[in-house]
Amino acid sequence: xxxxxxxxxxxxxxxxxxxxxxxxxxxxxxxxxxxxxxxxxxxxxxxxxxxxxxxxxxxxxxxxxxxxxxxxxxxxxxxxxxxxxxxxxxxxxxxxxxxxxxxxxxxxxxxxxxxxxxxxxxxxxxxxxxxxxxxxxxxxxxxxxxxxxxxxxxxxxxxxxxxxxxxxxxxxxxxxxxxxxxxxxxxxxxxxxxxxxxxxxxxxxxxx
Length: 208
Fold this sequence. Notes:
Layout: E1 2-7, E2 12-18, E3 23-27, H1 33-43, E4 46-51, H2 57-60, H3 63-70, E5 73-77, E6 108-110, E7 115-118, E8 121-127, E9 136-140, E10 145-149, H4 167-178, E11 186-189, E12 195-196, H5 197-205
């Protein structure tokens, strides 16, 4: 089961992955806790983990509320962990003083090669810096699924014009971590529609 809701001002994809009437993880609870909890309740799941693909405000803003409502622990890459508590690092400072996002620290740090399991899903953590220093993707080899965060999208790649971004690191991440995967891998991005890796190569990467 992979379900998603579009949340927040940047239309972020928040994913619920697991098994109906059992356990699940939530990836990128960016905002609108009520919509996220409606999804959790619809599938009647216990949320075991909250995973942030990176630390920008539109992917983390509902972290704390979701943790309070479910008891799940928050996971983020070490290099983006400070973004949870620093509005300039999570970019919410760009939204003005009334919209600063400052949360508690993560409960757990995840790094390259870590394995996140939930029900019959087994995701390997890929550290894919570029859009942010601690951006990650999650890859399930058996199911041929990639949760790509803001590293790649169906029609583009992550922005690199924010503080802490690096266009060269993003290129390296995509070439070395993502384009080496099979072309029929289904990509679930942080924004926009799902795609296949082969389509991304053809429509986006070759054009870039």
